Amino acid sequence: MEGRRRRGPRDGRVTASVQVAGDQVIVDLGGGDPAAGVPADLRIPLASVRAAYADAELAVNPGPAVVGRHLPGHLVTGTFRTSGERVLWNVRDPAKSVIIELAEHRYARLIIEVDDPEATVALVLDAIRPPADRHQ
């Protein structure tokens, strides 16, 4: 991702970067954290992305861990069962979280921390908007 490497959860940072390339959303999780079940990155077909939004209140209670770490008030990273669905969490600061809802993917949702939630949501929503609606 343009030569930039973000530090992963093991060294205290969980901030992800999100890009759109062709027909995919690429989520760089900063090297991941294999012990917590967090991959280094995810490549998700745009056709699998249903929604994206920021909601700090939803980014605090992951539910039971499949594999991951939950230190309440400090860190949620890994794969959790949230509302009965498999969800990838990678959040330290809920105020900077973005939720990306998926279909036909191994995760039902990604709940990730990003530098700029508003810009990330706009990027993803613009990419999944039908081409005729993009320039309105």
Polypeptide structure, described:
- By secondary structure, this protein is mainly beta.
- The protein contains 1 helix and 9 strands, in the order βββββββββα.
- Strands 4-8-9-7-6-5 form a 6-stranded mixed beta sheet, covered by helices on one side.
- The protein is globular.
Order of helices and strands: EEEEEEEEEH
Q: List segments where confidence is low: pLDDT < 50 over at least 5 consecutive residues.
A: 1-11
Strand order of the largest sheet: 4-8-9-7-6-5
Please count the helical segments.
1
Mean pLDDT across all residues, rounded?
84
* Helical residues, percent: under 10%
Rg (CA only): 14 Å
Biggest sheet character: 6 strands, mixed
Q: Could you tell me the number of beta strands?
A: 9
Structural class: mainly beta
Short account of what is shown:
9% of the residues lie in helices and 39% in strands.
Describe this protein with a few key phrases.
136 residues; mainly beta; six-stranded mixed beta sheet; 1 helix; 9% helix
SSE layout:
Layout: E1 17-21, E2 24-28, E3 41-45, E4 49-53, E5 65-71, E6 75-82, E7 85-91, E8 97-102, E9 109-113, H1 117-128
Parallel strand pairs: 7-9
Antiparallel strand pairs: 1-2, 2-3, 4-8, 5-6, 6-7, 8-9
